[in-house]
Design brief:
The complex is a heterodimer of chains A (260) and B (166). Chain A is mainly α and 260 residues long. Classes of the chains: A mainly alpha (260), B alpha+beta (166). At the A-B interface, helix 4 and helix 9 of A face helix 1, strand 6 and helix 4 of B.
Amino acid sequence: MDASTAIAAPQTGQPARRNLHRFANPGRFLRIAARMQPFLTIPAILLTAIGIGWGLFFSPADYQQGDAVRIMYIHVPMAWLATSGYAGLALASLLSLVWRHPLADMAAAEIGPVGATVTALCLATGSLWGKPMWGTWWVWDARLTSVLVLFFLYCGHIMLIRAFDDQERGYRAGAILALIGVVNLPIIHFSVQWWNTLHQGNSIGLTGSNTMSSRMLWPLFLSALGCTFGFSAIVVGRLRAGVMERRLRALLLAQAERAP
Amino acid sequence: MTRKMRRLAIVLACGAGLGSASALTLNAFSDNIVFFMSPGDIARKEPPTGRTIRLGGLVQAGTLHTARLDGQPTAAFKVTDGKTAIEVTYVGILPDLFREGQGVVALGTLEPDHTFHAQEVLAKHDETYMPKDVADALKRSGHWNPAKGAAPPASTWNSMTTASAK
């Protein structure tokens, strides 16, 4: 009995047919991920510490916002991860729905809670930033509302994927919800261009001119890069734990069946 | 067609349908999704007096008058979108970022005499992030007046330091 059968058997009840569709070998994933983990965790800690330390203590204050601008070095990476994490969730859902990739199912289940956390942090830091600058904790403008919808999508996905006794059905339902929610991603990104909002427009773009000083852009870039490594490190760690948990459960189940 | 390709086709078809449905819906509701109306919008399609609306624009340079009335700070200023301007009156404390040339969003009602009576004034800052010393240098050299318009792109002042500005 190889590792993948041991994991798949208790869930599907049709191990022979499922094996034909199997691409990933969870055993190989565990080996690769264990080797990869330090290369994600160490840069995550170093880059985030440098980026946020630089941003909070050594970058210049803004000409109009003063020191309040430093919330940006946490808010913007969280916003970036909230949306790109959702893109990752949608990609995993597509792989799970179309290619029935077993690791993609589990990845979708593990990205959800991490994504919801960074989205909550994005909303919280944004609120803390809004009060001193705009004069309000919250407004129902298109940018803020669409990010709140993203948070609800994450929460719905977390609950839906765990709501079924048959885990496969949960994965299927979660994947469909995640793919429907992709509509929200361009709305979040372009909300500040399509409609007038209280939230300011994008300062950094691949096309067009930047309107942020490079003395602020560098610490922001390092902080965002570090947080991205951190997000990946947490997701990979959770995924390893999830695979091992399944393997353990399958072994215990096999042991219980053998016992008289 | 394999089952995988069929599933992919179904997902893509659903995505296209959902995407265009959302695009049409958002387009149809775009008047309601905007957070505020500009003075030009109000001039074009005047809202009924007494209806609470949000007015957004820039505080026109040289129009801000503040006073105290019965111990309450009051402010009168004009909000402009570059073409049309509307007179705004407000009783209360203005946000810290409020200044001439600054973006603001005011919640209130349009009075019969075409002035806007605000109950709440929020500051809207733009997407320019600039160190104080650079901003001071640009202002001193006359390259930029914050009361008159948006800052030049960062590439034109990125290399500027405190030393070079002096």
